[in-house]
Structure formats: C-alpha cells, structure tokens
Amino acid sequence: MNKYFRWIRQNLNNIYRFLITSMTIILITLLFPNVGNFKYEYQKGKPWMHETLIAPFDFAILKTASEISQEKDSILKKFYPFFKMDTAVVVNVTNKFKSDFDKKWSKFKNSDSYKKENHSNQTTNEQFNRLKEYLVLNLNKIYEFGITDFQNEQKDLGFKRPEFINKSVNNLNEVVSIKYIYTPKSAYQYISNQLKKDFPTAAYQGFIQDLNIDSYLQPNLFYAATMSEQVKTSMLSMVSISKGIVESGTRIVLVGDIIDDHTFVVLESLKKDYENILGSSQNHYLIVIGQCMLIISCIVLLFLYLRNFRKQILHDNKKLLFILLFVLLYVALTTLVLKFPKINIYIIPFALITIVVRTLMDSRTALFVFIITVLLTGFLAPNGFEFVFLQLSAGIMAIYSLPRLERRGQLVLTGIITFITYSIVYFAFALTQETNIADIKWVNFMFFAINCLFITFSYSLIYIFEKLFGFLSDVTLIELSNQNHPLLRQLLLHSPGTFQHCLQVANLAEAAINKIGGNPLLVRTGALYHDIGKMKHPAYFIENQLTNSNPHDKLEFDKSAQIITDHVKYGVKIAKKHKLPQLIIDFIETHHGAGKVQYFYTSFKNKYPDKEIDEEKFTYPGPDPFTKETAVLMMADSVEASSRSLKEKTPETIRNLIDKIIDKQIAENRFQNADITFKNINQVKEIFTNALINVYHARIEYPKENK
C-alpha cells in the first residue's frame, strides 16, 4: 500500500495531466453533434471530383433559407393583426356621459349666455333632448367603428401600423381598413367638427367645450397578441421546407459536372438526410467513436508539438490547463453559435486565440494551438474547407501584424488587418461559387466586422488570463520596467550606484538578446530588478561607496562574503513581498548562479592557507541560469561590474576582460542548463565588447580660453 501511494506521489503531475487531457477529450466529444459526416466534399461553381453520385434513398429537396424567407414574407403580407373590441367600454362611457351631461346642462340653462337666447321652457327641453341624443348617437357610432391607440399598441405589434386589421366583436371577425378605425384624436376631431356644423352658436359651443368630450373617447379596440401570434404561427407553419422529391436510384451528378445552384441544393438536401440517418441509426455509437478518435488525433498532435518544442509548457500544469481550456472554450462557443441559425459562425473571433496565446506564450505555440482549434471546429462548421481556409488566413495575419503587444492601439490595427483579410478571402470564395455578385451574402461582412471588434477587447482578456494562470505578458513587463515603479524608486533612493549598474546591465543584456534571439523586454526587466537585494546593506557594495572608506576592511572575509551572497536571498524576499512575477525572481536568483564570491574566497585562502574553508559561506545560493535570458544577464552583470575596475580602458583590455570572465563561467559550467550555444556566446561577447568600447571611448579635451 505504501508503495502504491509513493508511486502516486511521484507521478502526481503526470496523473494530473492525464486527467485534464481526458476530461477535455470527453467534453469536446460530448459537444460534437451526434450525426454522421457526409463523405463527399463539394463547392458551388466547382466540378464534382468524385464518382457519379446516385441517390441512395428517397429524399426531399430542401428549399434554401432565402426561398423560405421569401415565402414567409409573402404570407405575412396577407396577415392582419387581430384587435378585440371591449363592448363594455361604450356602455360605461355612455352612462357616465349622460349623468355628466344632465348636471352640466342644469348649470348651462341658468347661465347668462343661454338666457340671451330667450328660449321658452319647451324649447329648452327640446334643445336638451336634441343635443343629448345627438351626442350619445355620435358616441355610439364612433365606438361601433372602434377606437384604438396605435402608438401604445405599437410596442406589442412589433411592426409598422397595418393597413388592415381583423376586428373581433363578440367572437365575430371582420377585416376592416384602418381608415374606418378611429384614434382618440381623430374621434375628437370628427365629433368636434360635427358639433360646430350643427350647433354653431357661441352659447352651445361654450357648453360643448365645457363638456370635455375628449374625456369620453377611450380606446375600445385592443391588440389581441395571443390570437394574432397563434394565427400567424399557423399561417407560417403552412410553408413547406421542401420543393420536391428525389427518388432512390436517380442520378444526381456526374464526374466533372459543374455544381450549379440546383445541384448544390440537391446535394445539401442529401447531405442533411444522410447525416441524420447515420446519427439516428443503431450504429450511431460508431460515429461517436470516430469523432473521439479524430479529437484524440488533434490533441496528440498538440502534445507532440509541446513535447518536441515547448517542454516547459508541457510540464507546467497551469499553462497546459490554459491551452486545453482555450481549445474547449472555442469548441463550446462554436457549438452554441450553430444552434442559432440567424447568427453566423464567422462572428466568433478565432484570431483572438493567436493574440492571447502569442502575448502570454510565443508565436509558434499560438499558431499551433490556433491550427488545432480550427481543425476541431472545422468538423462542426457548415462549409468546412472554406471555414478552415478563412480562419487560417486571418489567424496568420493576426500573428504577423502583432509581433509584440505593447500598446492597446496595436489591437485596433490588428482588428482592421484581420477584417480586411476575412473580407478579401471570403469575397474570393464567393466569386468562385456565385454566378452573380448580387447573390453574395453581404451580411457576412457585418459578422466579420463584429468578429474583429471583439479582437480589440482582448487587452482585458489577456489581463484576466494573466492573473488566473500566472502568466507574464509584455504588457506587464512594460509596466514593471517603468523606472517610476515603486520598487525601482526605492532602489534609486537607497542604492543609486546599484541603480545605475542595473541600467547598464539592462542595456547590455537587451542588446545581446536582440542579437541572439529571445525576449528583450523580459531580460531588460529582469536586469533592472536583479540587484534589489543590495538595498539591505548598500554601503557594502563598491558602486554605492562615495568615499575611500570600505566597511569590509573591518570584517573577516567570510563575514563579508556572507553579506555579499545575502543580497540574492534578500532580493528574492523583497521581490515576493512586492509580488513580482516568478520569471523576474528567476533573474534575481540566477544572476550569480552557484558561483563563488571570488575576491573574498581568494583573499581568505591567501591569508589562511592551512585553514579548512567552509565553501558554503563563499558560495551564492543559486541556481545557475536555466534560460537564454538569465544566462545573458549573468554575463552582462559580471562584465559590467568588472569593466569598472579596469585601470586602462582600451578596446584590447575590454575585449580580454570579457573573454576572461565569460570563458571562466563556461569552464565552471554555469550555462549547462540554459538553451544557449557557443555561437550565441561569441555573439554576446562581440555585442558587449562594442558596447563597452563605446561607453569608455576617449573624449576630446576642450581647450582653455586664452585671457
């Protein structure tokens, strides 16, 4: 049992990688549709490159999306929305009007304006009955036609005001023109005009105005949303999705025949039925096995690339998890988008993969992860070849246009370049498939634009992934290399000489990495922070000593060595306190490697030749450099520090010094763990030599002015 648990502990990382890989494969397989794949590839406008195709079974010829859309539009033109009349409105309004009319007439007949008419009581009663009946009759007439407020109903209608409506009164429907339907405003205008014509005298007009007739004109026709939608759905359901049948044994296309519009539709119909039949057959589990094998093949290709070219990523669980999750995310996103026919698959920003992975890792890994993702999603895309070709073109251009992300404005340029690439390649495909430019699906260009708009938001996405998975992007390196960073400001304040030394080392290391290849921004940032541990005892380092007094003169050699070596440990402690990334801490730990403090070590041996030396006290904690960047920094640090002690700074002495220091580091095997070659080291020597010669070149002595 103990042996079993010990084996698990020893292989824990391998078990973890196996589990996350297996889960990724299983989840992608579940996301794939449970349908078979049509075994023929074809494109509209291209010749049929396979054997003569005979219909294997009876199948319906499906209408195109545009044909179905046209038929639906034609049917909708004959659809009139339903408005239901509320018969209780007119009863309530009429009763209220009669009651209000009686009260207001009592006041009106006693008014001075009416008394001037000198009507008898009989005439007054006649006028009362006549006006009241007149108004009630007109109100009933208006309500019989119907009053509706189209502005309020517009929200429910969801389309422009119709020319005709279905008026439903007591479950009896009648199609009427909206010219015969009143709105509250038009009803008031109608009755107001009638009253002015039939009761023109000022007294009656004043009374009519006092009646506020508009308050009795309320809508009694209301949009019947449920009934309208039911009828509309019923009408649209009558649209057939097919337009004929191809019987089994019918020849569909000959070898070499150009696939025209009709043949393309027939092939698409056969493909859909063929895939559905395979998916619903009893052997559909074979389809799942096949899909799983294809997915495993793609993942194996990815792992082979990582094993041969990026072992550090393969052995980094967080980075591997990030890559697998990114692939899974895009497969899931593609599956989701394909469930919505109105949304085109080209709205998904696949080029974003190259930008994010390139920024957080490197260009080659970004391209390979992108290719694997596109291949997997290509199995889902409606037109696989066109989809893969488009995405590869856009992704490669995205990588080319963004060699290094340093400013947010670069993403806008990348988005524009990606959109242009999508547009040109898609337009070229469309020209080969459509006989008429008008038939090109121009709406896809809108999806390309939205796709590229998403790319401009990748800056925030990079930040999120960087924090979640512990990456170090160029954007963060730029922020850290800013000399106004709080930690660098502290270094300048407490150890100004060390700060200047770090700047010189950064310049040397960056120039060398630019020549031999690597990440110049990373090595520059690492160089700026590599000696921050000297802030603990700045006076014990010669670059910070302003006088000839050296505090080491009062210490034993082993104590002095201890102070010198401790600046590495203290530097790591400060870096972790300020939450610097591990990649920057690596430069602090490795810039002296596991070498010795040679000056104090030699001095101790010379003073105490017979005394046994505790070499650990004179040795830096290490480790030795394990990347090209950390190796270059070690060389730059040693060369820059030693060059200051040269009494005679000539090209010859500088070259000899550089050769001596770096050759000694090689002899001590300081670079055996770093991916740097002898050719690289010779190039670094040449860069350092030229740089230091330029720094220490002779100056012109300015003549003194004769007095």
UniProtKB/TrEMBL annotation:
SUPFAM superfamilies: HD-domain/PDEase-like. It comes from the Bacteria. Pfam families: 7TM-7TMR_HD, 7TMR-HDED, HD. Keywords: Membrane, Transmembrane, Transmembrane helix. Gene3D superfamilies: Hypothetical protein af1432. Residues 494-651 form the HD/PDEase domain. The chain crosses the membrane at residues 15-36, 285-305, 320-338, 345-361, 367-390, 411-430, 442-465. NCBIfam families: HDIG. This is HDIG domain-containing protein. It comes from Labilibaculum antarcticum.
